């Protein structure tokens, strides 16, 4: 997944479309946003022809952007000023990945020992409910299953965690408990 992130930014024009990323099997646009590599375009979302989309004429979403229909906000993003520099420096990118709130949550949860995916999901849901009780909203602990799955996959790729033989239990890798 790390190489897919690097490639998506390295090969990108100024505007990145989440639909094109998905079509190419690239990283989720939301992950690129979380990493600070792109900024979502909420207003004035360009039509596909305006940014040279490679799928122009062959995309089911093209009409939505061409006609200004609802549902466009946040589906495209602009590269951040430092995006290319971050992905060019692998250590810098990996530091951003490790600093993602969900990655931090997983690492902290596994610091006490192995944990099933189900227990991890329950802990995160409990933290979200506690945050709602305390603040009336969910920000720091906001998650969905896809985001949690990405965080786990990224940490596995980085060698920070691994799955036990049952496939449903995660553990910190030896020497990474700090």
Helix content: 40-55%
Low-confidence stretches: none
Q: Biggest sheet: strands side by side, in what order? A: 1-3-2
**Biggest sheet, in brief?**
3 strands, antiparallel
Number of strands: 6
The overall average pLDDT, rounded, is 88
How many structural domains are formed by the residues? 2
Bulk shape:
globular
What is the first-to-last residue Cα distance? 24 Å
Account of the protein in words:
With 178 residues, the chain is mainly α. The protein contains 9 helices and 6 strands, in the order αβααβαβαααβααββ. It has helices spanning 2-10, 18-23, 29-34, 62-67, 83-88, 90-99, 101-111, 117-135, 145-157; strands spanning 15-17, 38-40, 76-79, 115-116, 161-163, 169-172. A 3-stranded antiparallel β-sheet has the order 1-3-2. Strand 5 (161-163) and strand 6 form a beta hairpin.
In short:
This protein has 178 residues and is mostly helical. It is 48% helix and 11% strand.
